[in-house]
Amino acid sequence: MSALGRVLSLWGGVISLLSKSAPILSIGVGILTILNAFAGLGVLYLIKILVDTITRVLTEQPEQGFGAVVFTLVLVGLATLATALIQGVLNVLRMRQGLLVSDYVDREIHRTAIAVDLRFYETPKYYDALEQARYGGAQRPARAVDNAITLFSAGLTLIGIFALITSVEWRLIPLLAVPIMLAMGVRLFFTRQLFNWRMSRAQKMRRASYLDMLMTHQYHAKELRLNRIGRHLSDEYSTIRKDIREGEIRIEQNRHVSDFIFTLIAAIVFIGASAWLLQQSMTQSREIGDVVLFVLLLRRAEAAGNQFIGNVSSIVDDHLYLQRIFEFLRTRPKIKPPETPVAIPSPLQSGIKLENVSFQYDDGEKLALKDINLEIRPKQIVALVGENGSGKTTLIKMLTRLYDPSSGRVTLDGIDVRNFDPEAYRALMSAIFQDYIGYANTAAENIQFGDVNMPKDEARIIGSAEKAGADGIINALPSGVDTPLTKIFDEGRELSVGQWQRIALARSFYPKSSFVILDEPTSAVDPKAEFDLFENFRSKLGDRGALIISHRLSTIRQADYTYVLEHGQIVEHGTHDALVEHRGKYADLFEKPGRHYK
What we know:
The chain is α/β, with parallel strands linked by helices. It has 3 domains: 3-329, ABC transporter transmembrane region fold (Up-down Bundle); 376-428 and 519-598, Rossmann fold, CATH 3.40.50.300; 430-512, Rossmann fold. Helices cover 63% and strands 9% of the residues. It has 22 helices and 10 strands. The chain has helices at 3-21, 23-59, 66-115, 118-121, 124-134, 140-169, 173-200, 202-216, 221-226, 230-282, 288-329, 392-399, 422-426, 443-448, 458-468, 471-475, 497-509, 527-534, 537-541, 553-556, 576-582, 585-591; strands at residues 352-359, 369-376, 381-385, 407-412, 415-416, 429-432, 515-519, 545-549, 561-566, 569-574. α1 packs across α11, α5 (124-134) crosses α8 and α8 packs across α10 (230-282). Residues 594-598 have low confidence and may be disordered.
């Protein structure tokens, strides 16, 4: 795409952003931008009239023309004041406009990031797309809008300048236009070069950000100090940043050398043209006001030209980055509601079934799951066991429709779950994953995050904490459920890993779900806490079905039915007693607790 094409494309994107984020404000900014451009030129033209009036009075009517001089001087003053007022109001409105645009783009990026499929998060493509969309920080969209408006203003100013110069001497137009066009071409060349260089370093930039996070986040502080790897990470970070920094500096140095050459050419043109006009005025063939106007216009043209070139360069730069933002915002999930979603059955009868389900990751060479048949009925507790890497977490993602099967189907009461709205289907599930999140919020909010669409119910929060054995933890906090569970904010408290796990477990009990999925729910808790959790576990579930993944025999024995997963396949299934009697894989796992289980 040509530079002009990129400018027009960016303008289309900018207009779209403005129409969605600040439509009325943007109209006002546009009107004031036009007024500001021509008001500044009007002041210059009034200065020319003032000079011509003074010259005429001094040479023709030195005593009678004083009033005309004063009147013209007042007009210059009023025009200058009006220009300053317009500029001030315009600056305030543009700042407000920029903030609104930035906030709108942030919301749209967040909306897209929340909506895209989980599989998108598990590829380098996603992180590259987000890094490129985010490059330059939250102010990049606002800067793009500001650059577009400034370009518009500078363009209007240049048009006005060329029109006024034509009234003085039209033959000077090429002398001004050619250096501006050459300088613009060189600037665009270096802009493109810098962009391509940055895009080629996208993964290095992400690596640097990751290393920075490792060295500054509290969760990594213990290992960094104990293993003494902080300096190693710091050296790697410095090496990456040096490569990025030196590449940018090299391109910028070359650009500034080119800018200096064209500035020198522009200065020679300015001196030559001014000298020529001055010589004409001395021979009385031209008014001195024309010379003054030309000098003022030439200085203004130099400033407007540099601004125009800089803005065109920035806009091409902004277009390249905004293009990434627009591409990212156009990302749509593949898992989405059908045109006519089927209503979720209520009450549930047969529950959830996986029927001959197989799944392969996008970059996988073999199936992560193969021909899986599994069911969870209402009020039934099902266990899933298997060694690490056997496919248990992938199977959970099938059940919760975070993934769709590569083949086979998942059904709810015999209906393919692809016929339901994904959000309505997922609302049937509550879960605690191995990599659960501890939010830097209050204890109450950490539990309520199980379903924020429900009205806050403190009694239900406390009840969920009691079911998870987290009530004692909360009661020991200085402000109870209102205590922030973090030390990065005032009055906060930090919890141990086992305590956090019980808070996360309480979060899974909070929603009015039909199924609870517990992935290693007691891996970090002590035996007493595990006993307390699973005592009367069935009554804690109520009418809900449950899927439990655990490496602990005491937990698995709570299940009504157990599936054994190995290398992505169900190799055994049955009750605990039947599987032990079968003397197969299940029995082998529990006969070697020192190797596989605690």
